[in-house]
Amino acid sequence: MSGGSDGTLRLWLYTQGILLHTQQLHAGDTSPNVLSLSFSAKDSVAAVVVEGVQEVQLYTVDQQTRTIASSQSIPFGSEGSQLIGARFSPDGILFAFGRAPSVVQFERKDGQYVDMGETDLLKVMGQVAAEGTKEEVEKALKAVSLESIRKLGNDEHQAKEAAWKEKKKQKQN
Fold first, then answer.
1. What domain count does the chain have?
2. If you count DSSP H runs as helices and E runs as strands, how many of each does the chain have, helices first?
3. Residue 21 has what pLDDT?
4. Domain assignment present for 118
5. Positive or negative, the Cα torsion across 53, 81, 49, 146?
6. Residue 164 lies in a domain
7. Which of 52, 86, 89 is closest to 72 using CA atoms?
8. Residues sharing a CB contact under 8 Å with residue 169, sequence separation 6 or more, in sequence order
9. Which domain CATH number covers 52?
10. Closest Cα to residue 58, out of 48, 66, 67, 50?
């Protein structure tokens, strides 16, 4: 499967270089440019993120007819966060990445992906680093802003300082 700046998603018989099906992407008034494409072999679903569109577009691949059909659009509602990518884990969980940074987790229930809320950015980054391509890792790393790194450092520092104060208090008693 491939997608690019031509506004299409394409299904290929890659071993022979044969194009099986082409699906037009949804992008509203803009020319669709694919920022992210991830496929879940578990559910035969592709997650597509198009530049300028604040939703993850899901397309089902019919293995029998070798076609692609739009199946669900998931709004990415993280306030102030621009959607930049989506990725399936090996067990079929979908993660959507924003620039704020935020990572929202979606799980499949009754044939639809359901928003499970924001998730631990570092856990997802570790999974992407372990299983993703170089491009996916670079894209995910760009989602981590300097501000989020500072916040993580401040949180860790505050936790260490609180533990030190507690220890000092216990020694005084």
1. 1
2. 3, 11
3. 93
4. yes
5. positive
6. no
7. 86
8. none
9. 2.130.10.10
10. 48
Domain enclosing residue 138, as ranges:
2-145
Give CA–CA dist 15/168, Å, rounded. Answer: 66
Q: Where is pLDDT greater, at 9 or 115? A: 9
Query: Tens of pLDDT along 56-97?
Result: 999 999 989 999 988 888 888 755 667 888 888 777 888 888
Residue from 58, 40, 41 nearest 49 by CA: 58
User: What digits encode the pLDDT tens for the residues 103-122?
Assistant: 676 777 777 777 666 665 55
Q: What is the pTM of this model?
A: 0.64
Whose CA is closest to 46, among 3, 101, 99, 91?
A: 3
How far is residue 149's CA from residue 152's CA, in Å, rounded to a whole number? Answer: 5
Tokens of 39: 């496929």
Question: Is 150 within the bounds of a domain?
Answer: no
Measured between alpha carbons, how far is 106 from 42 in angstroms, rounded to an integer?
15
Is residue 105 in a domain? yes
